[in-house]
Amino acid sequence: MTARHLARTQMPPYSEVFAVPGFAALFVAGALSTWGDYIARLTVAAVVYDRTSSPLATATTLAVSLLPSIFGRTLLGPLADRLPYKYVLVCSHLSRALMVLVLIALVTAEAPLAALLVALFVLETLGGPAAAANQVLLTDLFTDRRVYVRALGMTALSEQLNQAVGLVLGALIVSGLGAVRGLVADLLTFVVSAVVVLVVVKVRPVVGDSSPGLRGFFDDLGAAIAHIARHPVLSRLLLLSLVSAVGVAAPEAVAIPYAGGAGLGGLLMAAPIAGAALGVVVVSRWEPRVSNDRIILLALAMPVPLLFTVVGLSTPVVFVLWFISGTLQAFMVPLQSTFTLVTPSDRRGTIFGLAGALSVTAAGLSYLLAGWFSELATPGAAVTMCAVICLGAVVLLAARWPRRVLDEAVQAAYRE
Length: 416
Known about the structure:
The chain has 20 helices and no strands. It is mainly alpha-helical.
């Protein structure tokens, strides 16, 4: 291989990512927000488990923290195609900060669990438009698509690491300091994120012409659904993401019941997330064509370590198995980057919101499935059963994986 060819295929260093104006501040704000989200999620789940001692109730709480995004991303995500994403992000962060205040009041007053779940539902619904707007922001920020892939890998790595940090901090806060302090930290992260976006992000005009009125809003949503269904690459990548959720979500759903409490449960929940961070480091070093070629292979391997959880292994051994499975989850990095770049620029907000809503739906249903299996058998058996379902679905997808079409789409998306 010639030096010229190597220069063309080697990925740019991370220094080029942070050299892009505004990215460093947004990167720090995103990290803080992720800490707060996962501290709050574990805090509420631990409160529910302490009151009910029910694995299904705990898994239901985690599902409630995800399912509202179905409505938020589907119905509010298209706002990123209609309004400047700076304003969408600021309003979303501030409205969620207000809802955290409500949640703090409910926890302090020892309100019924139903009230906590409703407040959590509204809080997560309001985050829907921010998810789509953030993806559009990241895509617009990097005109060099190879630097964009590095930025997406860095963002994914930060998200995985900070999820793990948030879960560990949440476990420590719940065990030592109480639930309210965790929610106060969550409140501060939303406020800081809103201020950073307000100061750093420039107002950019909306790309494309959206259909007018409420009817046009739903017409655009229907057009996005039809576009994904007809597109051989977008549809297969999205379907792989959805079926993989069954295996990805199961360990987190039953970690607290498996470990017998929030302390070790938080550490077990962090295992696949920490593993995913390592996987992102490795996969982000691969040239886009190589990483996309390996998407389906990594997806096939991901649920295999989870199959052994049924044996009733010790917590340290389960931690290692879940860590390995998390490492193999890194196929989501090339999957997400290619999905983003193949999506038409004038439909990104709507399609990102729709795809995010479907992914969250799959994750929420997977939480409930794992919790139900855990009630019927044991938490370890629940993880194994979900892994079997996940592996079978990915095998079916692999049998008809569109390798040639995907390769052509990758070459077109990353062409310099």
